[in-house]
Amino acid sequence: MTTIAIVTGGTRGIGRAVSLRLQEAGYRVYAIYRSRAPKPVDLHSDIKTVCLDVRDYEACKAFAELVESQVTDIGKIVLINNAGITQDAMFHKMKPEDWHNVIAVNLTGTFNMSHVFWPLMRSAGSGRLINISSINAQSGCAGQANYCASKAGLLGLTKSLALEGARKNISVNTIAPGYIDTEMLSDVPENVLNKIKTSIPMGRLGQDVDVASAVAYLCHNEAGFITGTTISVNGGQHIS
Ligand code: NDP
Predict the structure, then answer these.
(1) Closest CA to 169 of 214, 122, 216, 130
(2) Which atom of ligand 1 is least distant from the CA of 81?
(3) pLDDT tens readout for residues 153-200
(4) CA nearest 226: which of 167, 178, 162?
(5) Residue 40 CB coordination number (10 Å)
(6) Is 12's C-beta closer than 6 angstroms to any atom of ligand 1?
(7) Of the residues 80, 82, 230, which should be mutated to test ligand 1's pocket, given the most ligand atoms within 8 Å of the CB?
(8) Which residue's C-alpha comes closest to atom 32 of ligand 1?
């Protein structure tokens, strides 16, 4: 039987580390990107890269059909909803499009991918769905009302799908990373970043592999009884 992993935003940052880790663990990995085609050196050659906008339901559906037609002996499907964007502004300056774009990628994109792969997980009788949320969904963050709302939405989605998937051996969990050293932080001013670092008890930013390790653990057979929960990967910055 073939075990499949689909990683949205899987070609760079946290998602790239997740794709590599799951490929090492023996999964047939599909790494999804939207705008920036990866260079062959960025990923293992066995990882299949797919250009897909998670905001587009029909495109997600066509991709799920493609996977189903390519792999006739699906044993287990893991879906990592990792694609995410920020469009920060204080609320009084936030434009409606800043709100809608962030919700469309982070929350509706997660719905789209989960909804099109859910039937395949149900018929395989084995699935792992992991939603990448954020520390800021747990704590709130000035200037990120749109992002925090989208990421907090994932917590409710996770709990509901965990209840629905349990009888079909599908576990659904959230990972809430703290500040991780990727391009997503490149817009954060140096002085703000320094302040953030001093507020992290472990005294450092997280690395992409810190999150990838948590994903790999949740995907492992031994983690099959864990569902509906959130794992924080934040160096102690927020303990809920
Ligand atoms: P990056 O900005 O480095 O990467 C984002 C990825 O998402 C890219 O691969 C990008 O594809 C993809 N993506 C964006 N929009 C779409 C779309 N519409 N359809 C498909 N793919 C899309 O982010 P990180 O690696 O830092 O973050 C990964 C996840 O972790 C995000 O959900 C983020 O919110 C979350 N997170 C990150 C934290 C951090 O400190 N870095 C902290 C907490 C949570 P492309 O390359 O083609 O643009």
Answers:
(1) 122
(2) 32
(3) 999 999 999 999 999 999 999 999 999 999 999 888 899 999 999 999
(4) 162
(5) 8
(6) yes
(7) 82
(8) 84
